[in-house]
Amino acid sequence: MTTAAGKRRSSAGWYRRLRRQALFGLQDPTLLIGIGLLAVFSWLVAAPLIAVFADIFTTQPGDEARTGGAAGEITGYYLDRAFNSRMSQIIFWKPLWNTLAVATVSIVLALVLGTTLAWLLVRTDLMGRAWLSTVLIIPFMLPAWTFALAWMTLFKNATTGGQLGWFESMGYQIPDWVAYGAFPTTVIMTLNYTPFVIILVGNAMQRLDSQLEEAARMLGAGRLTIARRLVLPLMRPATLSAGLLIFADAVGEFAVPYVLGLPVQFETLATSLYRAIGTQQNGMAAVFAGVIMVFGIVTLSIDTWMMRKTWRFAVLGDKGAMQRRQTLGAMHLPALTLALAMVIVGIVVPLGTLALSTVMHIPGRFTPDNFTLAYWIGTDLGTVALRNGILLSDQFWAAAWNSIRIIGSAAILAGVVGILVGYVVVRSPVKIVSVALRQITFFPYLVPGIAFAAAFLVLFAVERGPIPALYGTPWILFLALVADQMPFASRAGISAMTQLGREVEEAASMVGAGWLRRMRSIIFPIQRSALAAGILLSFISGLKGVSLFIVLAVPSTDVLTTFSLRLVDYGYTQAANAVVLMISIIALGGMLLINRVTGTGLAQGLES
Amino acid sequence: MFRIALTNVRKSYDNRQPNAVNDISLNIDSGSFTCILGPSGCGKSTLLRMIAGLEGVSDGEISIGKKVVDSPVKGRFVSPEKRQVGLVFQSYALWPHMTVVENIAFGLKVQKMSAARCRARVDEMLAVLRIEGLEDRYPAELSGGQQQRVALARTLALSPGVLLLDEPLSNLDATLRLQMRDELSRLHRELGTTIVFVTHDQWEAMMLATHIAVVADGRLQQMGVGTEIYDRPANRFVAEFIGNPRINVFEPGSQAAAVFADKVQTDPQRDAATLSFGLRPEAMTLHATFVSGSIPAEVRAVIPTGGSWLIECLLRGTDDDALLVHSTQHAPGWTVGDTVYVSPDLAGLHVFDTDGKCLERPADANAETYARLHLKRGHL
Question: Which residue of chain A is at minimal alpha-carbon distance from B164?
Answer without folding.
Answer: A510
